[in-house]
Design a protein that fits this description.
This protein has 416 residues and is an alpha/beta fold. Helix content is 37%, strand content 16%. The chain is built from 14 helices and 13 strands. The strands form 2 sheets. The chain has an 11-stranded mixed beta sheet with strand order 1-3-2-6-8-7-12-13-11-9-10, with helices on both faces. A hairpin with a 5-residue loop joins β12 and β13. α8 packs across α12. The two termini are 22 Å apart. The relative contact order is 0.13.
């Protein structure tokens, strides 16, 4: 496992602006904390392990900007509860990671990993590839070997997409399991902090340490007892290489005794309506408790509009779209209520459809798992694609413990 001193050195040499640009802020004194951990008579689960944290999560003494220069003055007064839990379990926070600005809720044209504060994060394996997601710096830092583990947040594939795209494991827990306090939000309905590491075991170890109560021990499901549903929604949107890999994965599972069935759970339109209503309210609730000078969404939008050279490279249509005045209030509320009602019905139907399965394998773009607030995990295999990136699959399910047990088995099969 990488030491704190080694992680700090790699963060400066590889993760800086002349490298992968995945580091937003670094604490070079963090090694002192690791020495304290090593001298402790207790040996907590993450004792002395260096961790990077996404730049929308409060870490006391660090800036929390969500990648935006509009919040450049926001120095966290306290650790978010999930960070308190990590410290209690011995983790050493060495810094903050760059991210897509406001977790990709600024502009529909903004590329993954770009922010006005940090610039563009570079893919861990090949320059020019899309690093994806919004927890981009965290994923890249883990994939590049700068840190063994990193923390991100996920509203709609913000952990899972960049984890899969950089060939690592990424976990979005069930919505509501982890505290959202001290985290710049998008949507209280869908947001969740989560964990990233090279493999499933280490990812679960980090996630367990983020919880108020640690996970009970997770053991593999015997391959012959696995029940996997393949979500065939939008499979044809994949490139031929990806379709071939997914077919090989399914064949491997079947050959090892797994029961394979098909479901069709496509993207749904409710997410955008719910996020639009909840973003401004949640953001302003966070800002009221923060050290940031700007306290409202309107002030932030005005900051973007009055600093076009630095803030408007890709526009800010999502931020503007989340603004509405009293004359629009009734319409927005009605739209939100309809979306929430539709979500409840779809949650009931979709979770019932997959309740008998250990995991659902995603084969094409979908947000069904996020709509339902279901735990989702990426599992990296031993093969690499044409760009040299470890190939990975994405799984979700109704029961997180069954899902993680299945993920351990799938990982073993894909790496054997």
């Amino acid at each position: 496992m990488i030491t704190v001193l080694e992680a700090i050195r790699l963060a400066k040499e590889i993760g800086g602006k002349n490298g992968l640009n995945c580091i937003a802020e670094l604490d070079e004194t963090a090694a002192v904390e690791s020495w304290r951990c090593s001298e402790s008579v207790h040996f907590p689960s993450l004792s002395g392990i260096p961790i990077l944290v996404k730049d929308n999560i409060d870490v006391k003494g660090f800036h929390t900007t969500a990648g935006s220069l509009a919040l450049a003055d926001n120095v966290a007064l306290n650790d978010a509860p999930i960070i308190q839990n990590l410290r209690r379990n011995g983790a050493v926070i060495i810094g903050k990671s760059n991210m897509t600005e406001f977790a990709n809720y600024v502009s529909t044209r903004m590329p993954g990993g770009y922010s006005s504060r940090g610039g563009q994060v570079i893919h861990a394996v090949k320059t020019g590839l899309d690093p994806l997601g919004s927890s981009t710096g965290s994923a890249v830092a883990v994939a590049a070997g700068i840190v063994p583990m990193a923390v991100g947040t996920d509203t709609s594939h913000s952990i899972t997409a960049c984890a899969m795209g950089n060939g690592i494991c990424g976990l979005k827990p069930p919505a509501g399991i982890l505290s959202q306090e001290g985290i710049i939000p998008i949507s209280e309905t869908f947001d969740s902090a989560g964990a990233m590491a090279q493999n499933v075991s280490d990812t679960l170890k980090l996630y367990s340490a983020m919880r108020d109560k640690p996970l009970s021990e997770i053991t593999q499901t015997p391959a012959g007892k696995l029940r996997i549903a393949v979500n065939i929604a939008n499979t044809d949107m994949n490139l031929q290489e990806r379709r071939k890999y997914l077919d090989e994965v399914i064949e491997t599972l079947r050959n090892n005794g797994a029961v394979i069935s098909e479901v069709n759970q496509p993207p749904t339109p409710e997410l955008s309506s719910i996020m639009k209503r909840e973003f401004g309210t949640g953001l302003e609730a966070y800002l009221r408790k923060s050290a940031a000078k700007l306290k409202t969404l309107r002030q932030i939008v005005e900051y973007y509009e009055t600093h076009p050279d630095t803030m408007m490279k890709y526009g800010c249509d999502l931020l503007r779209g989340a603004l509405y005045d009293s004359s629009q209030e009734a319409f927005v509320v009605e739209e939100y209520q309809k979306a929430m009602k539709s979500r409840a019905e779809k949650m009931r139907r979709m979770t019932e459809e997959i309740s008998d399965y250990d995991a659902v394998l995603i084969t094409g773009p979908t947000y069904a798992n996020h709509l339902c607030g279901l735990p989702t995990i990426t599992v990296a295999g031993g093969s690499h694609d044409a760009n040299g990136v470890r190939q990975a699959v994405m799984l979700y399910g109704t029961d997180e413990f069954r899902l993680y047990a299945a993920a351990l088995t799938v990982e073993q099969l894909l790496n054997s």
